[in-house]
User: What shape does this take?
Amino acid sequence: MENRFYNAFDSEPFGGGRKPDYRNAFQIDRDRIIHAHAFRKLQSKTQVFLSGEYDFYRTRLTHSIEVSQIGRSICHFLRSRGGPLRADFYIDSDLVEAVCLAHDLGHPPFGHSGERTLQELMIKWGGFEGNAQTLHLLTETIFQNESGVRGLRPTRALLDGVLKYKKLFREFPRPPSNHFLYDTQQVYRRFVFGGAAVPKALLLGEGLNQFKSIECQIMDWADDAAYSLNDIVDGVKAGFLNHESINAWADERAIDPEEQQHLDRLFHAIRTDRLEGVFGARIGGFIQASQLRERDNFMAARTNRYRYELVVGEAAQREALFFKRMANDIIFESPQLQQMEHKARRVLFELWQSCWNNYVEKGARVINILPPQVGRLINAEKTRQGKARRICDYLCGLTDGTVVRTYRRLFDLEFGSIRDLS
Assistant: This one.
C-alpha cells in the first residue's frame, strides 16, 4: 500500500542519478549509511568515555543504534495512536532510522572535547559544527574518490532530517561556536526547501534553527532520550555516579518533589542492581510522551513533513533535562574528563599545526606526513579556507585510536615503524 504521507518532492535525491530497485528511496538511504566507512568508524569514537577503555561503555556507534531504535519506536507508537496517521498515511520508520543512524556521522574523535577543539581551530575558516559536518559527509565526502566528490546522493527528506540547524555561519551577528551550517552549504538548504525563500522572520534569532521537519524532531527527541538516560547508566558503571556523588550534587541545588522522585528511582535501581531495566522502562515512557500536532508554515503545503510537528510531554522533557544536568555536572565536569579534554586539545592542536606547516604555510623543507590522497586533496584547494576545511575533514574523520597513534608516530620517538602507516 502506498504511503501518501510522502510525495516525489520528499524522495527526490540530491544530485540525481539513482537507479530504482526493489527498495524504496528511504530504504536506500538507510542501507547506504550502514555500509559507509564513516558509519563503521563510529564504533571507535567517544560517546562519553574514551572508546576502547572498557567493553560495556557506549560508543558513537552503539549510541546511534540506540537512537535509531527509539526513533523507529516513536514512529510505531504515533501510528498506533491513529488520526491523523493511518494505514496509508504514516511517518516512514525506515527514513527516521536512516536519519538517526546518520545524526552523529560528523562528530570528531574525543567526543565533545574534540568538537570544541575543532571549533576553536576553525573559527576563522568558516567554523566547525558536528551537525554541519554530518551534512558535509552525506553530500560531499562519503564515497569520495580522487577524480571528484560524489556523496551519498541522499533524498531531500533524509537531508532535511539531519538538519537540526539551518542557519548559516555568516547569518549570525558574530561568529558562533556551534549550531550553524557552513556557508558553502547554502545550496543544500536551498535544495531542502525546494528553492522556496526563507521568511525573514525565521532568520531572526534562533527561529530557523528551530524550524525542523517531523523526522528531524523525532531524531532530536530520540537522541535526548538515549543520552539523557544512558549516560547515567554508563556513569554509574564507571563509578562516577554513586550515592555519595549524587547526594553531594543534589545538596547544592534545590530539588523539587518531582526531581526527588527521579533520585529515589535512581538510588533504588543502583541498590537492587536493576539500572538497565529501570532506565530501559524510562525510555519507553519517553517514547509514549510523544504526540503529533498540525502546524502552519511556508513549507506545510508542499510536504507533510512540515505540516505536522512532534509534541513531547513536559514531564518527560523535565526528566530528560534533569538527568542531562546531572551527567554534565558530575561526569563531564569531573577532573578525569577535564584531563581528557586537555589531552584531546593538545593532540588535535599539534596535529593541526603539523598539517598546516607542511601543506599550507610550507617552509623550505616540506614533509608529506599525511596519507597521499589526503595530501592531494589539500594541495588541490586554491584558498587557505579550502585547505583548512580539508585538514579539518581529515582530523574529524580519525577515530580515537587512530588520532592517538598518528600523534605518537609524529611526536613519540620510541613509537611506530615504517610499516605502521595507517
Remarks:
- The mean pLDDT is 91.
- The chain is about 55% helix and 0% strand.
- The CA atoms of residues 147 and 422 lie 22 Å apart.
